[in-house]
Write a structure and sequence with these properties.
single chain; 4-stranded mixed β-sheet; Nucleoside Triphosphate Pyrophosphohydrolase; 2 helices; alpha+beta; about 130 residues; globular
Length: about 130
């Protein structure tokens, strides 16, 4: 079995979750991405969020939220994404950058616009009563 190791930032404001859409895509993903060789979770997540959304995560505020697995979006059957998620505060103004075309604040009703692994996270957030 082949799997993709990814990290995601879970940011909730006003009971909505921050999500992003890459240029030329129609699916939303939670901000984050793949780690570079030898990067820790923290190093990779801080780098990815700075590249994608121009903000700095506050390292001392990073809090493990969970690990989720699902079929990887856009990959052949059997390729799994393992998403390690963290909550964190940030400094700066959220703006799409690099490959990100749009950022959006989504509710549970928007779940179907997201990848399979993100949909699992939506379910978890709803069960915890964190989002509407």
């Amino acid at each position: 079995m082949f799997w993709i190791d990814k990290l995601a930032w879970i940011r909730i404001e006003d009971r909505k979750i921050l999500s992003t859409r890459s240029k030329g895509k129609d699916t939303y993903y939670f901000p984050g991405g793949k780690r570079e060789p030898y990067e820790s979770d923290e190093e990779a997540l801080l780098r990815e969020i700075k590249e994608e959304l121009t903000v700095d995560l506050v390292p001392d505020s990073l809090q493990f939220f969970g690990r989720f697995e699902a079929q990887a979006h856009g990959h052949t059957e059997g390729v799994t994404v393992v998403m390690t998620c963290y909550l964190a505060d940030y400094q700066g103004e959220l703006k799409p950058d690099a490959e990100i075309e749009e950022l959006a604040w989504l509710t549970y009703a928007d779940k179907e616009k997201s990848s399979a692994v993100d949909q699992l996270i939506f379910d978890h957030l709803k069960n915890l009563n964190f989002i509407d």
